[in-house]
Each structure stands twice: as structure tokens, then as C-alpha cells.
Amino acid sequence: MLTKQNLRDIKKLAIAIDHDAAFGGKSKGNKHLLRVVAIVEFMAKKMEADLPIAVAGAFLHDTALPTGDDYNYETNKKIVKSILKPLCLSKDDVDQIAECVASHEGTAKAKSLEAKIVHDADVLEKTGILGIIRHTWKLVHSPKTLNLDSDVTLSKNVFEHLQWRASRLQTILAKNIHHYLTQGIDMSPDFAQKLVSFIRPLAKQNIITENIAKELEQILTERECKKLEEQLSLEYLNKKFKF
Question: Where would I find the HD/PDEase domain in this sequence (predicted)?
Fold first, then answer.
């Protein structure tokens, strides 16, 4: 069983990787990891999952990012197990955490409730306007990104990726949250292209998600700004959702 000290150690490791190693440190200061952890805590408590395992998986879910590819299930597992080795956790705890990390991108079906929750929390961060910002930023800084020189091609990739991620949602709770976050927002290819054209040059300057969001407000409607702010502040977690 994971202890509070284990979780503190895991948090420290995860933040160091996310801020200093992922994308060569260009995303330092972004709050994605902390939002995912908060969403996971919310969902895990509602669904009576193993909270420490789910939280550990949430903190570590992006540990493969420094390799330039966090979509490979087996590679993700190997990386996180290697990272956890110095902590001397039980094999069962390591295996459960590794499952959360390995399946978080939706390229393999999550095998546990905790893994489903981590996966879905990450999808909720790739939802709506925040999702467009985050995936545009990731593609701009991904070494394996090919043939995305034009805003049209890049926005098509972003739009299709967000649709694909949404289609992979595992839990009713996350599906209901996703519906709320996109309700009343024009999540069309044209809207995605408009935002991507604005976001791309800012991402190239290594401006982090939260600061891009502030700049983006100048071209968003009042309703769109409110939805984006709800995502960044996680205010929506105060609402009641069926699960």
C-alpha cells in the first residue's frame, strides 16, 4: 500500500520530469499535471477507486514525454517502472501504477478502474478550447510531427485527435463532464483552425498553456472564455454529474 511519503516522492519526481525534462523544459510552469491529479482525485472518490494508486498514476502519466513518444503502451510501462525502482514499492503497487501510465493515451484499453480514471482525466484536459491549446502546443514541440507546416493541416490533426480522444472515454462520469465542457461551444474544424492559427506562433515562443489562454481571450466570446476559465480553474468539478 502506498504511503503519504511515497506519494510525496512520486509527486516530486513527476513534477521534475514534467517541468525540466519534457519538451526540453519548454513547458515549465504549466499546470496540466496538477489539474489531472485534481480531476483524478475527484473521479476516484466518486467511483470508489484506489485513490493512492490513481493519484500516483496521474502524477506519473506523462513520464515518457521526454522520449518524444508517449503513445507506446509497453514503452510507457518500462519507463515508469524504471523511474519507480528507487522507491522500493511493492510489485503490485508498481504494476498498478504502470498500468495507469501505460494506457493513459488511449492506445491500449485500460485494464483497471484506476487506469480508466487516469485516462479519462487526461482526455478531459484534451477537451474543448483547453484541448485545442494543449494539443497544438504538443504538436508544435513534438520532434516526430510531420507534414504539419500549414495551419490547415495542423488544425485538422488537432481536431481529429480531440475527437478520437473523446471517443475513447471509459467512464460515464467523464462522458458527462465532457458533454458539459463542450456544450454550447462551436467545436467545428473551422473553429479549431481559427484557434490553432492564433495559438501556433505563441506555442513556438514557448509560451505555456495558461498564458496562451489569457491571450486567446481576445478572440473568444464571453461564453467561450467562461468555459475555458472553468477548465483552467477546475470550477466545473463543483457541479453534480451522474456516474
Answer: 25-136
